[in-house]
Amino acid sequence: MSVRTVCLGWHWRPYRYSRDAVDVNGRRVLGFPDWMVRLGRQALTAAGDPSAERYTPDTALVNYYDAGARMGMHQDRDEVSREPVVSLSIGDTARFRFGNTENRSRPYRDFDLESGDLFVFGGPLRLAYHGVQRIHPGTAPDDCGLAAGRINITMRVTGLSE
Ligand SMILES: O=C(O)CCC(=O)C(=O)O
């Protein structure tokens, strides 16, 4: 089973963003919520980014992973802007691979992203290859709002205007 994705703010499909979900139902995507902007700023503040208060993500990819889902190594490079990506994990723990900016191979680092974890990649690592190797089923905390599986939300700045 592969990852299932919905978008907020802008709709993403490979290589481009649009306001309408042209390859799904043609409808305009839902707006980007203010609480997510605030969360993005908090994440950057915690990561020590001096421009955290100006960070204004305008799109989010919301991915659902079931127990067998994975995501191959890739770069997030369809945004015009190179402002940081903030990733929020909810539910089952994921084995996440964070690599280098040149290719999908070593050097990379594997670590677990647990429910509630925020992960920021910006600066020289903004274009680092990354992916999800596996989901650890049954590890979601009881109070996370998700009975099974994992949701990951990546907030980004598209750098696009209407
Ligand atoms: O699920 C994750 O932790 C990563 C998601 C991701 O790489 C993406 O949406 O581009």
Write the layout of secondary structure elements.
Blueprint: E1 4-8, E2 11-13, E3 16-18, H1 34-46, E4 59-65, E5 71-74, E6 85-91, E7 93-98, E8 109-113, E9 118-121, E10 130-136, E11 150-156
Antiparallel strand pairs: 1-4, 2-3, 4-11, 5-10, 6-9, 6-11, 7-8, 7-10
Bound molecules: 2-oxoglutaric acid (AKG).
Description of the structure:
- There is one protein chain.
- The protein is mainly beta and 162 residues long.
- It has a single domain, classed as Alpha-ketoglutarate-dependent dioxygenase AlkB-like (Jelly Rolls), CATH 2.60.120.
- The chain has one helix and eleven strands.
- The protein has a five-stranded antiparallel beta sheet with strand order 1-4-11-6-9, with helices on one face. Strands 5-10-7-8 form a four-stranded antiparallel beta sheet, with no helix packed on it. Strands 2-3 form a two-stranded antiparallel sheet.
- Strand 2 and strand 3 form a beta hairpin.
- The N and C termini lie far apart (34 Å).
- Bound molecules: 2-oxoglutaric acid.
- The site of 2-oxoglutaric acid has 12 residues, from strand 4, strand 7, strand 10 and strand 11.
Please give the share of residues in helix.
Answer: under 10%
Categorize the overall geometry.
globular
Q: What is the succession of H and E elements?
A: EEEHEEEEEEEE
CATH topology: Jelly Rolls
Largest sheet, strands/sense/barrel: 5 strands, antiparallel
Q: Please work out how many helical segments DSSP would assign.
A: 1
CATH superfamily: Alpha-ketoglutarate-dependent dioxygenase AlkB-like
Give the terminus-to-terminus CA distance.
Answer: 34 Å
DSSP strand tally: 11
